[in-house]
């Protein structure tokens, strides 16, 4: 008899640990444990998503005749951590072996590696074959020079999958249509009504449990609308293909006040817990192109995220951990300001993105990268503190995907392993891609002075501070040329504004980190 241990982000019927299961003898183990809910204080919606999806998945397995030993959070005797619960289950079932699929986090892999010895039963850790590129293959591919960068890795994935290919050539004659995907929304544009999923009785029960057990975790629950079953996840994918995908490319980078979802896929939470798989969503998007329902720039842009970025960050995580998380190339050490949790800041762009994050456990890529991420980079926030925030607040955040995006793409803490230049921007970028600056009390055009937008002086201060590292980077030649053209006086004023800002940001009496005008 084997005990098949399934984790909360492994809710895929085809998961490798279920391969060859014998329903007559084997038992599936699923456990809800407080240690996993609290090692960072996850957003309430994220907890509800995972626990409800686990309970639904267990019911689906039982309906197939598979025995599931399911331990609920509130069950008496629950050891409240993976190792303790596995030990209790081994004592109950006396299996010959435990079978698990490779986890999504280094920390959990270390636990798994200790189980066989600690519990006295052989533990088979199977590869997670829901991804296109196994870590060993990633290491081989990226060691071979060019594919070390995402763009070349992505081309290789296109060749291997045959997605959007015409023989050996990319469809449409180009690998990448990104240049067409940077449009700003027309003023007052209304995004489409997106499909959300009303909680059923099981989700309501979990929501009450989460509210009672974790009342002080970030986020509101009344706007929960994530798919929690495979059927709902397929409906979410279908909604994206019909309503989002045709315009996904055009408005991929655009942001607008009150428009929390726009044309984005909204599938990452379902993908990352296993209700959908990357190959199936990429194939579904390609089919929309061939059916003439979505343009190439949109379909290519989406497929690049799914088979390019998603696979690339996973490969990077598993080939570079555990050392990857320890690097801090820019020596960033400031603490995360409290307003990341309260949203109380006069900087309208940040307030709006944090508001959406609190309401939905969601923000789209550019909001994460160019608003909250950009601020954290420019303000020199310690990488570990930014990472813990991102890991907690997004429903789709699992360390294998969150860490490279935050540590590498946002904080540039890996010294350029992920991106050859930091994603730093001043207010002009945010003003171009959103309507945030229009209603903001700060002056998006001013670099210094009482009303100057902090993104501006922090941006130029960042360039000054890191001139030795980035001054000769050809991709940063333009901003450094502009910096060189500035007078000494302006440079000194920028440094002084930035220092005063940092002093206010870390002052203990700062009211929730509020940065109001004249304060
Ligand atoms: C600072 C930062 C942190 C991020 N943290 C996470 C995270 O914890 N979990 C996560 O899944 N994504 C993360 N991303 C990537 C991206 O923001 C989300 O995947 C996306 O916003 C999810 O929403 P969506 O399904 O509507 O995606 P869309 O914008 O519609 O994109 C489609 C799909 O592409 C994939 N994708 C897009 N960009 C990336 C990327 N950079 N890395 C990996 N996959 C990508 C996702 O699976 C996504 O569902 C992060 C990006 C940044 C800049
Ligand atoms: S002016 Fe500055 S702080 Fe205000 S919304 Fe624009 S970028 Fe953000």
From TrEMBL:
<dbReference type="Pfam" id="PF04244">
    <property type="entry name" value="DPRP"/>
</dbReference>
<dbReference type="GO" id="GO:0016829">
    <property type="term" value="F:lyase activity"/>
</dbReference>
<dbReference type="InterPro" id="IPR036134">
    <property type="entry name" value="Crypto/Photolyase_FAD-like_sf"/>
</dbReference>
<dbReference type="InterPro" id="IPR007357">
    <property type="entry name" value="PhrB-like"/>
</dbReference>
<dbReference type="InterPro" id="IPR052551">
    <property type="entry name" value="UV-DNA_repair_photolyase"/>
</dbReference>
<dbReference type="InterPro" id="IPR014729">
    <property type="entry name" value="Rossmann-like_a/b/a_fold"/>
</dbReference>
<protein>
    <submittedName>
        <fullName>Cryptochrome/photolyase family protein</fullName>
    </submittedName>
</protein>
<keyword id="KW-0456">Lyase</keyword>
């Amino acid at each position: 008899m084997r005990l098949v241990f399934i984790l909360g982000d492994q809710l895929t019927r085809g998961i490798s640990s279920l391969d060859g299961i014998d329903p007559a003898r084997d038992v599936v183990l699923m456990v809800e444990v407080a240690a996993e809910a609290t090692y960072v204080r996850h957003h309430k919606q994220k907890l509800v998503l995972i626990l409800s999806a686990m309970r639904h998945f267990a019911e689906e397995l039982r309906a197939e005749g598979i025995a599931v030993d399911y331990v609920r959070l509130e069950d008496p005797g629950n050891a409240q951590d993976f190792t303790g619960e596995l030990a209790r289950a081994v004592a109950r079932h006396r299996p010959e072996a435990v079978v698990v699929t490779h986890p999504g986090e280094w920390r959990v892999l270390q636990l798994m590696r200790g189980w066989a010895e600690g519990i006295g039963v052989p533990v088979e850790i199977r590869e997670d074959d829901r991804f296109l590129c196994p870590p060993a293959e990633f290491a081989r591919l990226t060691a071979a020079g060019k594919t070390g960068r995402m763009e070349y890795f992505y081309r290789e994935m296109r060749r291997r999958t045959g997605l959007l290919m015409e023989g050996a050539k990319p469809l449409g004659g180009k690998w990448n249509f990104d240049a067409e995907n940077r449009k700003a929304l027309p003023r007052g544009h209304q995004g489409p009504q997106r499909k959300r999923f009303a909680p059923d009785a099981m989700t309501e029960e979990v929501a009450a449990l989460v509210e009672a057990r974790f009342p002080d975790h970030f986020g509101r629950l009344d706007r929960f609308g994530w798919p929690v079953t495979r059927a709902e996840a397929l409906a979410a994918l279908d909604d994206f293909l019909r309503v989002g995908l045709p315009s996904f490319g055009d408005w991929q980078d655009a942001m607008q006040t009150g428009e929390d979802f726009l044309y984005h896929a909204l599938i990452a939470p379902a993908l990352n817990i296993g209700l959908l798989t990357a190959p199936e969503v990429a194939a579904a998007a390609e089919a929309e192109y061939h059916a003439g329902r979505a343009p190439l720039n949109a379909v290519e842009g989406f497929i690049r995220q799914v088979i390019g970025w998603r696979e690339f960050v996973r490969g990077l995580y598993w080939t570079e951990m555990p050392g990857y998380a320890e690097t801090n190339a820019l020596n960033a050490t400031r603490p995360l300001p409290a307003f990341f949790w309260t949203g109380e800041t006069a900087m309208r762009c940040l307030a709006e993105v944090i508001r959406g994050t609190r309401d939905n456990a969601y923000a789209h890529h550019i909001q994460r990268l160019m608003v909250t991420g950009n601020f954290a980079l420019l303000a020199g926030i310690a990488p570990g503190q930014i990472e813990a925030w991102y890991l907690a607040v997004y429903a789709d955040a699992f360390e294998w995907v969150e860490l490279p995006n935050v540590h590498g793409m946002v904080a540039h803490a890996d010294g350029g392993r992920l991106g050859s230049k930091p994603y730093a921007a001043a207010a002009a970028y945010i003003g171009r891609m959103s309507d945030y600056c229009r209603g903001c009390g700060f002056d998006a055009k001013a670099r210094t002075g009482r009303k100057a937008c902090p993104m501006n002086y922090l941006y130029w201060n960042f360039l000054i501070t890191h001139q030795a590292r980035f001054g000769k980077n050809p991709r940063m030649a333009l901003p450094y040329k502009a910096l060189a053209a500035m007078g000494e006086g302006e440079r000194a004023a920028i440094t002084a504004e930035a220092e005063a800002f940092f002093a206010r940001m870390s002052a203990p009496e700062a009211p929730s980190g509020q940065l109001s005008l004249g304060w």
